[in-house]
Specification:
alpha+beta; minor pseudopilin epsh fold; 1 helix; 9 strands; elongated
């Protein structure tokens, strides 16, 4: 007599497979979280750098100053990580401005540090006096890397990834 044909897996086979999947998941999830944080940081700082470059070009092409700053209650603030960053075309004779672009606030847990409230590009694309400096993009504190974006007096930025803990 023929034995009945089995379709499927036995309980021990399923238990072993499930145990192996759980081990893989516990190893992969922390590495995946750091990978996602790094990708978010990389995308944001590159977009930030592109906005700075665009501000420089907009200033020289419009022959008007362009300001880049975090806006809170209609004023530039030092809260680079909390507020949306706005690119404003400034009209010097009327003290008026026009929003050109806006960059959303940082992902939660990340930090952006700069020692001034705003960065303003003159009509020739260079920065206002003594506004050159370094932006520090810091991910969550447990990571051992950060980004540094240095903007020189001519208005050009240089982006570097630093493989050490963030100083801020």
């Amino acid at each position: 007599m023929l034995s009945p044909q089995r379709n499927g897996f036995s309980l021990p086979e399923l238990m072993v497979t499930l145990a192996i999947l759980i081990i893989f998941a516990t190893v992969a999830v922390p590495a995946m979280a750091q990978f996602i944080d790094r990708q978010r940081a990389s995308a944001y700082i590159r977009q930030f750098s592109q906005h700075l470059a665009y501000a420089r070009v907009a200033a020289s092409s419009s022959n008007l100053p362009v300001q880049f700053c975090p806006m809170q209650n209609g004023q530039c603030s030092l809260a680079w990580q909390d507020a949306p960053l706005q690119l404003l075309l400034l009209y010097p004779n009327s003290n008026d401005s026009q929003l050109i672009r806006q960059l959303p606030a940082l992902p939660s847990g990340h930090n952006l540090v700069y020692n001034r409230k705003a960065i303003t590009f003159r009509r020739d694309g260079s920065l206002n006096g003594f506004e050159n400096g370094t932006f520090y993009y810091c991910p969550k504190p447990q990571h051992q890397w950060h980004y540094r974006l240095t903007v020189n007096q001519a208005g050009r930025g240089r982006l570097t990834e630093v493989h050490s803990a963030c100083p801020y």
